[in-house]
Design brief:
The protein is an alpha+beta fold. The chain contains 15 helices and 16 strands. The chain has three domains: 290 residues, no CATH class; 112 residues, no CATH class; 57 residues, Orthogonal Bundle (Arc Repressor Mutant, subunit A). The structure holds adenosine-5'-diphosphate, magnesium ion (MG) and zinc ion.
């Protein structure tokens, strides 16, 4: 029997708050080092923390979205360890300790892989604070520390060991990021560190107890998590097949070399000496507060997909693609608000726009064009100003330059030719030059009509109004009413 892969994830998410977890300092990213600090987040003696209500609300939101049980009281704890990025020498976190549960436990998130839907269990959701950041410059025998990040609100989400492949781990992270973005809990960008993931993985024979696991760290994209896990699965399999044991350890992912390696182990029985934080009252969540939070949760992806299908008469497939990220759905709805042609707008977005984003490895937020400009392009086609053929050139130019479709059309003289007299001349010339196809048309071969229309389009560089060309051709060949 083959081995079964077992994966559990620990995910840290930076919460979308203006201020830190236990003080009023700003969480704004990119400020000069140590300019967003105060006695609390610097851990100066005598400074007292106060819980950020908004951070708790965002944690509750996440707990609800993940179908967790929210505990009426939870308690912060001190996790003690010594490291220079941790000025208090302890991190305020939540912990399962005697009768004190974390903020929320036992939920799930549904994923779909290869058409199969599966529920992945969530063991816990808890709140904690981030540490500062150490910088080790190449020059000089020094290290720097920046405490701007110290005390920034984090949420930790821990899954049960329910994932069965690196692909499922990837699907889980994509789905988690999507719902957290929709719920406005976090920006969820691994590249920027607002979502970080440690992956635990082991192998076993199906039906046997869990095998010895390794924990892989240092992945900076969802794709890297999948790759790191695939590497680790292969490595463990090889060990087991040689009759060797997997060592429980933390391993680091090397993105460039595509391998994991054992890091100096500060391993095993690490004793954090957890104890309740005496400077903070317990977090009390009343049913009323929880209900208020529930009402404030923005529309989630599945609900938005269903609404978009109903409201704009789109198919499930298109709607699913449009809600993939919140920014995409927002772009679509803004464009439709500017010009009510949902089907055409969806087609452009899922066709040319999405191909452009893929090709240039961009996110929709980085597009040069606005929803209003896409709407304008659709209007120009619909009112006959440009042909559908020309519109493809125009959108390519729009995506490149960010110019409005109107200005591109004017600048390049792309306005559709709807002038009957001018088109009649071209139709006449095409008929003279193509006696064969003309005979076919007269013999009743419909396909030949399309060929002749194509010839007219070609001679006008795609600018002729195709419907008008059809009519003129049919009139001239005595086929009216066809
Ligand atoms: P720790 O207390 O060391 O962080 P936990 O028991 O909290 O360990 O588990 C951490 C993560 O590891 C969870 O996501 C859990 O599902 C996962 N996990 C635990 N045991 C295994 C295992 N044998 N194989 C794979 N994942 C595991
Ligand atoms: Mg852990
Ligand atoms: Zn502060």
């Amino acid at each position: 029997m083959d081995y079964e892969t077992v994966i559990g994830l620990e995910i840290h998410v930076q919460l979308l708050t203006q201020s830190k977890m236990f003080c009023g300092c700003s969480t704004r990213f990119g400020a000069p080092p140590n300019t967003q600090t105060c006695p609390v987040c610097l851990g100066l003696p005598g400074a007292l923390p106060v819980i950020n209500r908004r951070a708790v609300e965002l944690g509750l939101r996440a707990a609800l979205v993940l179908h967790c049980t929210v505990h009426p009281t939870s308690q912060f704890h001190r996790k003690n360890y010594y490291y220079p990025d941790l000025p208090k020498n302890y991190q305020i976190s939540q912990y399962q300790y005697l009768e004190h549960p974390p903020l929320a436990t036992d939920g799930y998130l549904e994923i779909e892989v290869d058409g199969q839907r599966r529920r992945v269990g969530i063991r816990r959701v808890h709140l904690e604070e981030d540490t500062g950041k150490l910088v080790h410059p190449e020059e000089g025998n020094v290290s720097w520390v920046d405490y701007n990040r110290s005390g920034v609100p984090l949420m930790e989400i821990v899954t049960y060991p329910d994932l069965r492949s690196p692909q499922e781990a990837r699907a889980f992270l994509l789905k988690l990021r999507q719902v957290l973005q929709y719920a406005e809990v976090s920006t969820g960008r691994m590249e920027e560190g607002t979502l970080r993931c440690d992956a635990n993985v082991s192998l076993r024979r199906p039906g046997e107890p869990l095998g010895v696991r390794t924990e892989v760290k240092n992945m900076n994209s969802i794709r890297s998590v999948e790759r790191a896990l695939a590497y680790e699965v292969a490595r463990q399999r090889e060990l087991l097949e040689r009759g060797e044991a997997v060592v429980q350890e933390t391993r680091h992912w090397d993105e460039r070399r595509g391998v994991t390696f054992a890091s100096r182990s500060k391993e095993e029985a690490e004793d954090y000496r957890y104890f309740p934080e005496p400077d903070l009252v317990p977090v009390e969540v009343t049913p009323e507060w929880l209900e208020e939070v529930r009402r404030g949760v923005p529309e989630l992806p599945d609900a938005r997909r269903d609404r978009i299908m109903a409201q704009y008469a789109l198919g499930r497939y298109d709607a699913e693609l449009l809600v993939q990220t919140r920014a995409t759905a927002d772009f679509f709805e803004a464009a439709v608000a500017a010009h009510p042609s949902p089907k055409a707008i969806a087609n452009w977005m899922l066709g040319e726009v999405s191909a452009y984003l893929n090709e240039h490895n961009l996110e929709i937020e980085q597009l040069r064009i606005t929803p209003a400009q896409l709407a304008e392009l659709v209007r120009l086609v619909e009112d006959g100003t440009i042909s559908g053929r020309i519109a493809k050139d125009v959108i390519a130019e729009m995506l490149q330059t960010g110019d409005s479709p109107r200005s591109i059309v004017d600048r390049q003289g792309l306005v559709q030719i709807s002038d009957e007299a001018a088109l009649r001349e071209t139709v006449e010339a095409v008929i003279q030059d193509n006696p064969g196809p003309v005979r076919d048309v007269l013999a009743g071969k419909e396909k030949a009509v399309a060929f002749l229309v194509g010839q007219v389009m070609r001679r006008t560089q795609g600018r002729a109004n195709p419907a008008l060309v059809q009519r003129l051709l049919r009139e001239r060949l005595g086929l009216l009413g066809g």
